[in-house]
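Subject: Pentatricopeptide repeat-containing protein structure
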Amino acid sequence: RDFHSWAIVILGCIEMGDYEDAALLFVSMLKHQNGASKIPPWIMGCVLKACAMIRDLGLGKQVHGLCQKLGFIEEEEDSSYLSGSLIRFYGEFRCLEEANLVLHQLSNANIVVWAAKVSNDYREGRFEEVIKDFIEMGRHGIKKNVLVFSNVLRACSWVSDGGRSGQGVHANTIKLGFESDCLIRCRLIEMYGKFGKVKDAEKVFKSRTDDDSSVWNAMVAGYMQSGFYIEAIKLLYQMKRTGIKAHGMLLNEVNLKANL
């Protein structure tokens, strides 16, 4: 059995959710096979995922060390995938210094790597750091994606600047053509609702080109968050007339406010 055969079996375990078996097979592979340089680089990212799922920080660090020893992280073809996997892995263990070190050691980090860092920082409540990440991406000419914009806009909702950061990110979504994305619309409406900027939220809502229920629900939630209960109720009736389903928890909240 060669390294590729081992890798396929390990991948099969991971896809079946057998993360502990995948980790054990990886260790067995290293014991029984010579010439580690022949290991397929892509399997390292899969093993890191397994290590995160079984909460084995030690093994994950060993995988990181092996990647460095074999030069996988420096290889341009595989560096983004492996570095992104490492950053996500360390993020799962809240080892943000190690995650940031992986990023800073790269000479040409791309969107995969930056998106992993943004996700880590948001999950850990480092909201101002998320905005700094976003600015740094712009300075390095990194093209943002929907996931990055989504996390950055959510972070903006938690920064006490009256929504100024969010407005700047909104301008960027327009410039790069992301404002029409359903998820981005929801995040923008949520962010403006958090700061009571109902008019801005309404502009985003009215610019929609389809009737996705999540955008409608986000607008109702925005009204509720800003204390515009009558407008929320009116929009719910409009949703009912057009056959758009409201979220159950949102209906409960509206009913509660209406009965006060």
